[in-house]
Amino acid sequence: MYKNEKRSTNVDPEAVIMNIEKGEEIVGAWIRPGIPEVGLYKLLAKKKVDGTCEWAHFVERTSGAKERLYTGTTKDQDEISKVLDIMNCNLRRAFGPGYQLLPARLVARSINDSELGIERNN
């Protein structure tokens, strides 16, 4: 289903999780807010110029630290829903029924933290 999956346990809090290059578009953002003592689970996805999609899934602690970063590539946008299903299955297995990633409003920011005016509501 997806290739080139990478995993990183601890991520620099200032690290950029995903770059959006010219011609690419954000195709989705999902979040599971407020898991006590854990933080936020997030999934981001973009469509590249060649039609493939890249995704990033990570945990953002209440301290702002980003952990457990997984990234990968799918052959097309349709497969992003399969990645979302897998991540939701893992959340339910870890935390119980009712835990899942929900569509999120995404406001893109530049590397110097200025808002780019790109918004996406799933």
Write out key terms for the chains shown.
two-stranded antiparallel ribbon; globular; 8 strands; six-stranded antiparallel sheet; 15% helix; mainly beta; 122 residues; disordered C terminus
Low-pLDDT regions:
117-122
Task: Please give the count of helices.
Answer: 1
Radius of gyration in whole Å, from Cα? Answer: 14 Å
Helix content: 10-25%
| SSE string | EEEEEHEEE
Mean pLDDT: 81
Strand content: over 45%
Overall number of domains: 1
Shape type: globular
* SSE-based structural type: mainly beta
Q: Please list the strands of the largest sheet in the order they lie side by side.
A: 1-5-4-3-2-6
Query: How is the biggest beta sheet arranged?
Result: 6 strands, antiparallel
Number of strands: 8
Distance between the termini: 22 Å
Structure commentary:
The protein is mainly β and 122 residues long. The protein has one domain. 15% of the residues lie in helices and 50% in strands. The protein contains one helix and eight strands; from the N terminus they run βββββαβββ. It has one helix at residues 78-95; strands at residues 2-11, 25-35, 39-47, 53-60, 66-74, 102-103, 105-109, 115-121. The strands form two sheets. The chain has a six-stranded antiparallel β-sheet, covered by helices on one side. A two-stranded antiparallel ribbon has the order 7-8. The longest helix is centred in the C-terminal third of the chain and has 18 residues, at 78-95. It is globular and about 40 Å long. The protein starts with a strand and ends with a strand. The model is unreliable at 117-122 (pLDDT under 50).
